[in-house]
User: Fold this.
Amino acid sequence: MNAPHRSAGAAIEIRKASKRYGAFTALKDIDLHIRPGEFMTLLGPSGSGKTTTLNLIAGFTDISAGTLEIGGKSVTGLPSHKRNIGVVFQHYALFPHMTVGRNVAYPLALRGIKGEDREKRVKRALDMVRMADFAHRYPAELSGGQQQRVALARALVFDPPLLLMDEPLGALDKKLREWLQLEIKRIHRELGTTFVYVTHDQEEALVLSDRIAVFNGGRIEQIGTGRELYDKPATLFVGRFIGESTVLRGTAEISGNDTVMTIGGQRVIAHGRLPGDARPVILLRPERVALKQPGTVAAAGENRLSGTIAEAIYLGSGSKYEVRLSDGTVAVVRSPLGAVDFAIGDAVDIAFTAADLILLPDDASAD
Ligand code: ATP
Assistant:
């Protein structure tokens, strides 16, 4: 296989950008800085503004307010075809009447690249997506995953500094999706191109990204690595959108530097306090909670809430439980392999320290 061609990735700088469609505001004041060569994923529920952001970068739609720079230059007013960006959509959009080879050659033909140089670049791009043996086939003779690999080759064949992808794996089955995620990750690593990737699938975002921007209702809630978003969500929305979680609500009072929550008559101590008069909630990650026999002595600093096992699922790598707490909340708990087994109906305590919980302001939009 030919050595991949490394291109310098372009930085993207979006400042105070808004997008309105008539009276409707699809994006409100977003700030997004993407580093050269970074894999940035735009993650969020349907209608949150991810595609609108991608379309602004691509030049498929105009910004209503704010600024947008690609590679250090303002692109306001620059038409899409002059931005030198590769784009891959969910639906492959290959030209059906052209072979794979001609599809991939098309962006080069547009740029006046001919002859042997064109052939070499097409071959290199098809090698990169492992589709070199299919150059003479037509799109209709390929599977969905193969078509998407060809679309990726076509988007990268002219060595763009920036590749935009909008749910490129959305139409594929889970297994193929997981395999192609790793292929896309490998290609990103080989090329050094900046990738901006839209998905509503948080697992996909975690697998692929250097950083993730979490969208909600036309705003960006938080930008960070997967680990930062999981361990230190800035908002309840982010905490609930990334990974599994349980939200505990109760009455709160401040005691020194601690927030003391009373939940179903039992006290939980959280270190720290929220600024302002925000109503605190506690977010628990399933693997940071342990199950204990009720009546056993709590260790120092251990919070306990009593409940009953409502569901017990054996996962091979451990077990997952749903525990109905005395206030009716259902807490999700993951026990590692070798932990004591519990059965549906067993009375248990869930146990966690202040370091295991995340204290956040309540937010109705997270439910
Ligand atoms: P999805 O995952 O469903 O694609 P998304 O996060 O990509 O969602 P966008 O496509 O960016 O969301 O849309 C954001 C909002 O803007 C939505 O409420 C959508 O209905 C609205 N919107 C998008 N395009 C237009 C348009 N051309 N005219 C009016 N409203 C639009």
Observations:
- The radius of gyration is 25 Å.
- The helical segments are 50-58, 100-110, 115-128, 144-156, 174-191, 202-208, 226-231, 236-241.
